[in-house]
Amino acid sequence: MQLRVLADLSGLFRLLQLSLFACMAHGLAGSPALAGDVNVGDKAPLFSAADETGGQWKSADHVGKKIVVVYFYPADMTGGCTKQACAFRDDLSALKQQGVEIVGVSGDSVANHQLFRKAHSLNFTLLADTEGRVAEAFGVPVTKEQKSVKATIDGREEILVRGITAKRWTFVIGLDGRIAAKNTMVVAAEDSRAIAEVVAKLKQQK
C-alpha cells in the first residue's frame, strides 16, 4: 500500500514538473512577461533609454523637476497608439503650463520613433525600449515576439519592425519622485484628458 502511494505521489510530482516546464516554454515563446510591480505611492524606478534623437534620456534628469507622465503603448503607427499620441500632442501646451512632461515608451526602435514623429508631427519624447527593460521596471507586461507595421509616410511605404510589445499602461510620477497615478485600463484616445484630470487633482492636494 505504501509503495503504491509513493508511486502515485511520484507520478503527480512528475506531472507538476512537466506542467511547470510547459508554462516556462510558453512564456519564452511569446506570452506576457511581468517583472516588477509598481503601485501608487511607490518610488518610481530609475530608468534610461534612447530617445527619438538617439541620445540617452535619463529619468534622473527629469523626475523631481516636473510631473512626469510615462505612458507605455504597443506600437508606432497603429490606430489606437496614433490616437493616443495625437491627443497628447494637441494637449501638450496646456499640460506644459501645469508643469507636466510627457514621455511615450514602446518597443519600437529610434528609427521607428523618428518616422512616427514625422508622420504625425509629435512634439514630445519617445523612448525606444527595444529590450523591454523600462516596461519591466514598471511591471508592465511585455510580449517578446517580432512584429511589424506597414505605413505610408510622405508617399513612401515603410515597414516598422519591433521585437517587444508592451501593454498600454500609463503612470504619473509626482514631484516627490513617487507614483501618483497608475492606469492599467487606458482608453487610448482619452488618456491625455485623463492625465489632465489627475494633474488637476494633484494640484488641489497641495
Description of the structure:
The protein has 206 residues and is of the alpha+beta class. Helix content is 37%, strand content 28%. It contains five helices and nine strands. It has helices spanning 2-28, 79-97, 110-120, 133-137, 191-205, and strands at residues 48-51, 56-58, 67-72, 100-106, 125-128, 142-153, 156-166, 169-173, 179-183. The strands form two sheets. A seven-stranded mixed sheet has the order 2-1-5-4-3-8-9, with helices on one face. The chain has a two-stranded antiparallel ribbon with strand order 6-7. Strand 3, helix 2 and strand 4 form a beta-alpha-beta unit. Helix 2 (79-97) packs parallel to helix 5. The longest helix has 27 residues, at 2-28. It starts with a helix and ends with a helix.
